Structure formats: structure tokens, C-alpha cells
Amino acid sequence: MDALATVTLCQSCALGRQGFANELGAAMAKAGLPVAVATVDCMSGCTRPSTCAFRSPGKTAYLFGDLSAQDLEALVTFARLYLASADGALADARVLGDLRFKAIARIPA
């Protein structure tokens, strides 16, 4: 299955150092979501660690911070909604629970 979106996790942040990328990738695969999980040395989100970004061609990109392992399910839910959206915009972010308050930026496509 080819990835339709990429989530990139900061490797310098606590979650990155703890191997959360592997856990996130496994959760995406278990949910049947075509999402590639990658890491990068630093995302410069140090004031709101741990950070990750969601990107897909032609869609709005999202940057999340202040993440913890407890956000795993919400990240999978976000990925499902993000992939289903034509442009990456979500009509109602309340289904994301606390994750909606951890959005740092929405970057237009």
C-alpha cells in the first residue's frame, strides 16, 4: 500500500527518543491507514515538544506539539479524517479531543 500522507516525528524530542515513531507506524498500519511515519533530527518545536507534522500532496499540512504517548489514538483518528478530507481541512476538530489544542500550525497547500 503506497502512503497517501506522511507524518514526521521529531527525533530530538522525548517521544522521538523513546521510539514513538515505531509505535505510531504500527498503529497506522493496524488501522489500515496508508500513512508513512518518518523522523527528522529536529523540527525546531522545542518550546512545545514533542512535535510531529502531517503532510500530503495538495493538502493543508499540520504541525502538532506538546504530544505524549497518550495522544496515539487521537493521532490515528486525525490521520483517518485527514486522509478522508479533499483538502486536509477538518469540518469539526472536536472529535480529536485534547489533540485539537495541540495544533501549532496549519500550513496551506
Tags for this model:
3 helices; 26% helix; 109 residues; alpha+beta; 5-stranded mixed sheet; Glutaredoxin
Could you give a quick summary of the protein structure above?
The chain contains three helices and five strands.
Secondary structure: elements and pairs:
Layout: E1 5-10, H1 14-17, H2 20-30, E2 35-40, E3 52-55, E4 61-64, H3 72-84, E5 103-107
Parallel strand pairs: 1-2
Antiparallel strand pairs: 1-3, 3-4, 4-5
Could you please describe the fold and organization of this structure?
The chain has 109 residues and is α+β, with helices and mostly antiparallel strands. It has a single domain (5-107), classed as Glutaredoxin. Helix content is 26%, strand content 23%. It has helices at residues 14-17, 20-30, 72-84; strands at 5-10, 35-40, 52-55, 61-64, 103-107. Strands 2-1-3-4-5 form a five-stranded mixed beta sheet, with helices on one face. α2 (20-30) crosses α3. The longest helix has 13 residues, at 72-84. The model has no long low-confidence stretch (mean pLDDT 94).
Low-confidence stretches: none
Side by side, the strands of the main sheet go 2-1-3-4-5
List the secondary-structure elements in sequence, H or E: EHHEEEHE
Main pleated sheet: 5 strands, mixed
In DSSP terms (H or I, runs of 4 or more residues), the helix count works out at 3
- Looking at the structure, the CATH topology is Glutaredoxin
The portion of residues assigned to helices is: 25-40%
Strand content: 15-25%
Q: What is the global morphology?
A: globular
The number of domains is 1
Radius of gyration over C-alpha positions, nearest whole angstrom: 13 Å
Count every beta strand, where a strand is a DSSP E run of 2 or more residues. 5
